[in-house]
């Protein structure tokens, strides 16, 4: 095991004059490998004060400490995904024997930290509900912002439940974490008839939410998969009846993004059920600058590949096992499982 590595996270952090010593101390200690005694002399203070400044740097998120095993495949996998699909890839190292639930938790922890560094005052985040994002919401740290908002991207009601508690709790978790205004989307996940959706989309209350969605700087979503140890919420909670599932199979659907169904090649426009879906299509999501896809579980590799082929992803957070499975699905790619990349300090 290598020693811990420090990641300096200055993006999105506004430093007052009082914080300058924190930044100087952290830079000298973590990036310049200076001893605390030397830092104390440079800052004309005591060693104990330097220790306090370094602790403050960690506590405020200016510095993040990570451990990376020397034999991790994660860096090589991330680079391969980035080259293959043109996205920023964050591969979370997990042992191959880790359970699906624990794998999800590790990916959720990393995703929550990344969101904390990306989301700031004056921004809008669009959130698609689901099992994966519910896990992310549990690991968010509080970050005070001003003039920001979170907005629900797809409806949550079905013919068994209103879905209000599930979706509103998720949106509230994100809103509370960032002191952001919250905008709920009180429509079904799927309308019974396309005509009903068209009529509702003309209602002012619905159009107001759609307008907020259109202002989003970040979209946060996962991919849905029918099978696996952790079934996607849309397939496990009564949103689709048996006829719907059979229709999806006939049409070659492999999964969904924001409850919009995708085929393996990323196409979606002529999938019948999408005419009744309330989530944004890949074409609509393309208007959002940063589109973050969070995935855990190799059963999601096939729908993840479809999402990447649709062009809807700019940033991918994925566990190591799923990343390996994803790349194995790409024709002509050699295995990257044996690649080794030495640890390094990442500077942002």
Describe the structure.
The chain is of the alpha/beta class and 348 residues long. It folds into two domains: 5-66, Homeodomain-like (Arc Repressor Mutant, subunit A, Orthogonal Bundle); 74-328, 3-Layer(aba) Sandwich (Rossmann fold), CATH 3.40.50.1360. The protein contains 14 helices and eleven strands. The chain has helices spanning 20-31, 36-43, 47-59, 74-85, 100-118, 131-137, 164-178, 194-200, 204-213, 233-236, 242-250, 282-285, 301-310, 320-328, and strands at residues 5-8, 63-66, 88-92, 124-127, 149-152, 181-183, 218-221, 253-257, 260-263, 290-295, 315-319. Strands 3-11-10-7-4-5-6 form a seven-stranded parallel sheet, with helices on both faces. The chain has a two-stranded antiparallel ribbon with strand order 1-2. Strands 8-9 form a two-stranded antiparallel ribbon. Helix 13 (301-310) links the parallel strand 10 and strand 11 (315-319). The radius of gyration is 22 Å and the shape is globular. The chain starts with a strand and ends in a 20-residue tail after the last helix. Mean pLDDT is 84; it is low at 334-348.
